[in-house]
Amino acid sequence: MRKLVMAAAALAASLALGATAIAQEKLKVGFIYVGPVGDFGWSYQHDQGRLALEKKFGAKIETSYLENVPENDSERSIEQLARSGHKLIFTTSFGFMEPTLKVAKKFPDVKFEHATGFKQAPNVATYAAKFHEGRYIIGQIAGKMTKTNTVGYIVSFPIPEVIAGINAFMLGAQSVNPNLKVKIVWVNTWFDPGKEADAAKALLAQGADILVQHTDSAAAMQEAEKAGKHAFGQASDMIKFGPKAQYTSIVDDWSAYYIGRVQAALDGTWKSGDVWGGLAQDMVHMAAYTNLPDDVKKMAEETQAAIKSGKLNPFKGPILKQDGTEVVKAGENLADKDILSMNWYVKGVDDKIPQ
Amino acid sequence: MNPDILQLVLFTIVTAATPLLIAAIGELVVERAGVLNLGVEGMMIVGAAVGFAAGYASNSILVGALAGMAAGMALSLLFALLVVGLATNQVASGLALTIFGLGVSGLAGAGFVGLKREAASHLFIPGLSDLPFVGKLIFGHDFFVYGGLGLTAAAWWFLTRTRAGLTLRAIGDNHVSAHSLGLPVRRYRVLAILFGGACAGLAGAYLSLAYTPFWTPGMTAGRGWIALALVVFSSWRPWRALAGALLFGGATTLQLHAQAAGGFRVPAQFMSALPYIVTILALIVLSVWDRRGTTAPAALGKPFVPDR
Lengths: 355, 308
Description:
CATH topology of the largest domain in chain A: Rossmann fold
Low-confidence stretches of chain B: none
Largest interface: A-B, 49 and 50 residues
Order of helices and strands of chain B: HHHHHHHHHHHH
Radius of gyration of chain B: 20 Å
CATH topology of chain B: ABC transporter involved in vitamin B12 uptake, BtuC
CATH architecture of the largest domain in chain A: 3-Layer(aba) Sandwich
Oligomer: heterodimer
CATH class of chain B: Mainly Alpha
Mean pLDDT of chain B: 88
Distance between the termini of chain A: 25 Å
Structural class of chain B: mainly alpha
Number of strands of chain A: 14
Order of helices and strands of chain A: HEHEHEHEEHEHEHEHEEHEEHEEH
Number of domains of chain B: 1
Strand content of chain B: under 5%
Number of helices of chain B: 12
């Protein structure tokens, strides 16, 4: 029922969009968000990118967005944007992959950009950020800072991006502390503050003294603050919710990419492709390192610089799978395509990937 | 499982059940009067937004809670005008109310995204709250939890032990007969709808003031729909609604703790669907059990137009 309503809401909103499709010479850029713009996390950061576009291009473009679009019922929302004259459409969640490709087939003259996916088409480009670079850094910090050797990790859905994040975190942690254990809780949602808070409570009760999240609200950060423990923020800087708790946040920054792609569309040079930027391309930022002793802060900054310059690859060999088989030999790095389709855990993660 | 964790689990189940219970009790009374209000999610989220805004501005939980209730009532008044005043289709009006509420809440709460405040304070009775294990569980909650229990008892007493409650149920079962007996059908229904709005608003305010004390759009995350399912699950009886709320809240909480403990694993997707599956099962059991057929108020969802 909830899905029905959300879809109805999306439909109603998109009908309203259709009514305003008059000024055709302007490039109309559309965005589909999986959560509310005000989630202060994932969708919020994408919307910051949209606002950056408006600021940069002013009257040359017109932007609109649909928020709270459920992944498994997104096709009509995307189609509505395409029908209402949007020529460049950003679909900003992994679950929009198949719907985006379907709609793209029907509208060959509309350009689509799908975030965090791995399937392209002539008019569908993909883009993603190497969040796992940030997760390697926070893994190192957690490895140094944990007193109980137990870290709680709240996750949404078992998709490659999330699993690669867990693995990068673990590899980072293991590089400084081989005894660190990670306890994983799947909450099966990107955004439900109440449930995220309850998951945080459960993990803290199990002895975790640091929380990591791959969900979008600040609830876990707030729980950590309340309990006098620590946490890492996700998607945007969550320091307000955990002034004493936050070590750092992995911040997404899509502005530069969005500006580049809209410019290309305006110039007529837009081409499909796959962009995967990290710290080096400014797609991933680390929020200020706080509540950390100087040596750990220094280590984090050095690791960040090494990843940024390309000296350090979080997925450098040797990497062993959970069962001990070697996937990457010493001296080699895991290929990008293997990271983007990752469906296995590295050795030391005590969890089973939900099927 | 060690006692500390067991205590925490039970404590969390109670807090997770509270918003479901408060919203469900309100809707239960509305449905007993023969009106189906599918706008619970919308009223709840507006209650959360306005409740947080008022709580933040006044720095008072009580003001926040009252403002949340008032916001829920304001939205339900709109619904009452539509379905009682103009006898519009209740399903469509309720769905519209939810969509409207989700939108309005974003607007009302826009200036408050990213702010936080202290959670509602918890009851503390020297001596009693310190009792090992049960102390915190029984005497250590915030006032929303006790409010929810009080509300359940009050709704039960009202519906089964008062003349007004009897009248309300009669109206819900057959508004034409009730009307021909001279009972004020529309007045009862409007009051019931306002009560439901206040409850949904309070449940929303609980989320943004006590459960996760910040405001963010969409934070009810479907709890209004679970409350609706809960009313059906409870077969329109307040104490069963309490049991159902604990069951629905408990299912999620237990599953999170089971994962954290690394014990048995149930797919998270299944647990998300559980409230609805249980509701369907409850409906089947009830209809098999009760030979007369459904236990739903007979006039539920039917528009009423007084013939003279």
